Structure prediction request, 138 residues.
Amino acid sequence: MEDCIFCKIVDGEIPCFTIYEDERVLAFADINPINTGHTLIIPKSHAENIWEIGEDDLTAVHRASRRLAGAMQRALQPDGIAMLQLNGRAVNQLVMHYHLHLIPRKADDPALSMTEWELVPGDMKVIEETARNIADAC
Ligand code: AMP
Ligand code: ZN
Prediction:
């Protein structure tokens, strides 16, 4: 879809740190990570939200989430992984292309607000290295 930043990532017009992909989904590093290893999983085909996404793409995203969670466990040894998915501007969805956040967390990390957090750009070198680390564990 035109003017959709995640479609542009799927099409290779905007770069990303790819962690995993198959015929239906792409997983890549969030560039404003809440924690090291913050990853997004998207359907390659544009759908805005939970009401628009097709059953097969929805299934593919969530099947991939389990694979990615296993890879994160092996690569990063977090104490837990928060999975978050926002639908609609009212709950602060910023990119209007369905995406599932996977956020590895340590037990003593500060509490995470559910729908609003400050977007702080990450260190691209750390993001790239961590993305490769998880990708190798997929
Ligand atoms: P939200 O729509 O609120 O669930 O969050 C959108 C997420 O997309 C934010 O965590 C952003 O940091 C992330 N994001 C936006 N643009 C990019 C990009 N070009 N590459 C990676 N992550 C991005
Ligand atoms: Zn899109």
Remarks:
- The longest helix spans residues 55-76.
- The first strand starts at residue 18 and ends at 21.
- Helices lie at 5-10, 55-76, 124-137.
- The pocket of zinc ion (ligand 2) is lined by residues 1, 4, 6-7, 46, 97 (CB under 6 Å).
